[in-house]
Every structure is written in structure tokens, then in C-alpha cells.
Specification:
Blueprint (H helix, E strand, L loop, with lengths): L4 E3 L9 E5 L7 H9 L2 H4 L3 E6 L1 H10 L7 E4 L6 E3 L4 E5 L15 H17 L11 E4 L4 H6 L7 H9 L5 E8 L2 E7 L9 H4 L2 H17 L6 E5 L14 H15 L3 E6 L1 H4 L2 H6 L2 E4 L2 H12 L4 E5 L5 E4 L16 H15 L2 H7 L2
Parallel strand pairs: 1-5, 2-3, 2-7, 3-6, 4-6, 7-14, 9-12, 10-11, 10-12
Antiparallel strand pairs: 8-9, 8-13, 13-14
Helix pairs in contact: 1-3, 8-9
Length: 361
């Protein structure tokens, strides 16, 4: 059945249309979406299409003592279009409605539901807004175990998005722009076991996040990004005393980037690179593996950081936290990261050539 087309409230409307996927139904996705969009400042930045479950959204609103502020529409509705004069439309996948508001944990159905939300949102990025398309995707957290139970082999959003979009290179960029903090961290490897790093950390794997991160910061207005690269080993290997990856892999990647005119330095010991004095010297830090980069990000800005996928032909931002099954359904989730992810997506849309071209018509 064809996707419902979009009825904009005004042909001269200049707000981007942001798709938000609910993620794992048993997690805090519905709660952080409801709380984020209940903020008039956030809701006024764009028009929103939520791919998810209306029942879970309404339950989260009830717990937070918020009135329902969205318009519900069955996701495969035969209607000629859905009306964004409401500002927020929830496309409801009620075939998954048996997922209880009280079931908080990994499940096969949860994995199938979150994958369906995401695939439909990805498909919508390929359509014109007037035909039901969206300008960007913001993702609430999925449960990787649920995806596995559902029969999906992808370890996370990033890998799936790369597969679906056929992107040659991708990187995870984490941004934290809050009072007194301006931190950008990009990862050389993503969701991989630590014991596998030796085989996966190649010159290309280190070069790509340097290159992609440099281009991303330029698009954000930094004319000449200053980039620092972490070492892999303690003390950045100390000239081969604690491993040779710095000399064999990381330094050649840095030299390759420098040959292209990128202002990049390192490798530096990771335990000193994230100190306040060092952070002020650089616009971007390249971490070698997930926890090396994410531990400092989450310590410094757990409720405000944003995950941006670089290298895709579409705009995708996300919260930087997980499903938080332990607090799901208790009205305890902080929506700060979801708000930040929405703001980042809106800013990226406004800077995109596609959005600018549409609004120039």
C-alpha cells in the first residue's frame, strides 16, 4: 500500500520534517519522545512524524501528567495524506500493540517492531516531503539483543543504516554542546569485542573518522578543525613498549590525513587527551574504540550528548543512551539527549542542500 502523502499546513512552510523512531518498545523510547516533544520550544522547531506505538506514547504521557498533543494515524492508512498542522503525527503500528506497557526487557517482537519503525523511516527519507517523506531521522534506543531474537544480524543502528543506504564509509560522532562544554568525539571502531580490535584496527579504519569528522565539523562552521587522535595502548604505546599499533597503524593514518591538508595530531595517550586543558586545544578527538570515547562523553554530558552518523546519504541523529529497561515505565527517564538529538537534526537539515533547494522553490 502506498505511503500516505503529506499535507503541509502552508506551502511556504519552512520547518523541516523530522521522523522519530520509537526504538525498543520495552525501553524508555516512548517516554523520552513524549517528554522532548512536550517542550514547546522543541516542538516549535520542526514538524514531526513518530514511527511507533500510540498506546505506549499515551501511557508515557499519562505517567508524566501530560495531555496528548499529537494526532494518531494508522501507519498504513489509505487516507490521501496525513495532516501536519498538528505539528506531531504518530504513525501507529498497532499490529505490535500486544507489546505490553509493563513488559520491559528484550523480546523477539520488540526487535521486530523497532526494526519495522526504522526501516519505514529510512524509506521515508528517500521521498519528497510532499509525498510523505521526511528530512531526517532521529532514533530512540534499540535493544541489540531484541534484534538478534528477531532474526536481525546487525549489532546496532549504525551498521544497519550503512547497509540500507549502501554507504561506503560511516563513523559515529558524539557531540556535547552544553554550558561550558564543547566536545566532539568520533570512533574508529564501533560495536566490536575488544579482543577483536587487533584485527579490525587498520590504517583505513583510523583515517576514515579523521576525514569524515573533519568534513562534518567544516559543515558545522569550523573552517579548520583541529583534530587529536588517541592511541590504542597505555601511554600511546610509548614507542613500541606496550604494543606497536600506534607506529604500525595510527601514525600512518594521521600522516595520510595530513597529506590532504587536515590539521591532525597524535597519537596521544587517551588518559590525558580528555583532560580539560587538552580538550580546549582541539575541536575533535578520534577514539580507537567504543568505551575509550564514550566513557568520557557520558561522564561529562550523559543527559545532553548526541550521536550523529557520518557518511550516510541521509541525516540521522540519536540519543547517546540505551533502552534503560531498569527505569522504563516509571516516568524517571531524562529527555535531555532526545531534545539535543532533535535540535542537532534540525540544524543539520537547515544546512543541507536538499532542504535549502526545497524551500527555494
Amino acid at each position: 500500500m502506498p505511503r500516505p502523502s503529506l499535507n503541509l499546513p502552508d506551502p511556504l512552510d519552512r520547518k523541516p520534517v523530522i521522523g522519530i523512531t520509537l526504538g525498543e518498545p520495552g525501553g524508555i523510547g516512548a517516554e523520552v519522545i513524549v517528554k522532548a516533544l512536550a517542550d514547546p520550544e522543541v516542538r516549535g522547531m520542526a514538524r514531526f512524524v513518530v514511527y511507533g506505538l500510540n498506546e505506549l506514547m499515551a501511557y508515557a504521557a499519562d505517567l508524566a501528567e501530560l495531555d496528548v498533543f499529537w494526532h494518531r494515524l494508522q501507519h498504513d492508512s489509505p487516507r490521501a495524506g496525513y495532516d501536519l498542522t498538528h505539528g506531531v503525527v504518530v504513525l501507529d503500528y498497532d499490529e505490535f500493540s500486544l507489546l505490553s506497557t509493563h513488559d520491559h526487557g528484550p523480546s523477539k517482537r520488540g526487535g521486530q517492531a523497532s526494526m519495522r519503525f526504522l526501516d519505514d523511516a529510512i524509506a521515508a527519507t528517500r521521498l519528497e516531503v510532499e509525498q510523505g517523506g521526511i528530512d531526517a531521522v532521529v532514533t530512540a534506543p534499540i535493544c541489540k539483543e531484541s534484534w538478534k531474537l528477531g532474526g536481525f544480524r546487525f549489532p546496532g543502528h549504525t551498521e544497519l543504516l550503512q547497509n540500507r543506504s549502501k554507504a561506503k564509509r560511516v563513523a559515529m560522532l558524539f557531540r556535547a554542546q552544553t554550558a561550558g562544554l564543547d566536545l566532539n568525539v568520533v570512533l574508529a571502531t564501533i560495536h566490536v569485542p575488544l579482543m577483536d580490535l587487533r584485527n579490525l584496527l587498520t590504517i583505513g579504519a583510523v583515517f576514515d573518522p579523521i576525514d569524515l569528522g573533519n568534513a562534518a565539523l567544516k559543515r558545522l562552521g569550523i573552517a579548520k578543525p583541529r583534530i587529536a587522535v588517541c592511541g590504542l595502548n597505555p601511554h600511546a604505546g610509548e614507542n613500541g613498549q606496550f604494543g606497536d599499533e600506534e607506529q604500525r597503524v595510527i601514525t600512518p593514518a594521521i600522516e595520510m590525513a595530513r597529506s590532504l591538508g587536515i590539521d591532525v595530531s597524535g597519537p596521544f595517550p587517551a588518559d590525558t587527551l580528555f583532560t580539560p586543558g587538552m580538550r580546549k586545544k582541539y575541536d575533535l578527538i578520534v577514539a580507537m574504540y567504543h568505551d575509550q570515547g564514550l566513557i568520557p562523553v557520558k561522564m561529562l554530558a550523559f543527559d545532553d550528548a548526541v550521536n550523529v552518523t557520518l557518511g550516510l546519504p541521509l541525516i540521522r541523529t540519536s540519543v547517546d543512551h540505551g533502552t534503560a529497561f531498569n527505569i522504563a515505565g516509571q516516568n524517571k527517564a531524562n529527555a535531555g539527549s532526545m531534545k539535543a538529538a532533535i535540535r542537532e537534526a534540525v540544524a543539520m537539515c537547515r544546512g543541507s542542500s536538499k532542504f535549502q533547494a526545497r524551500n527555494a522553490k
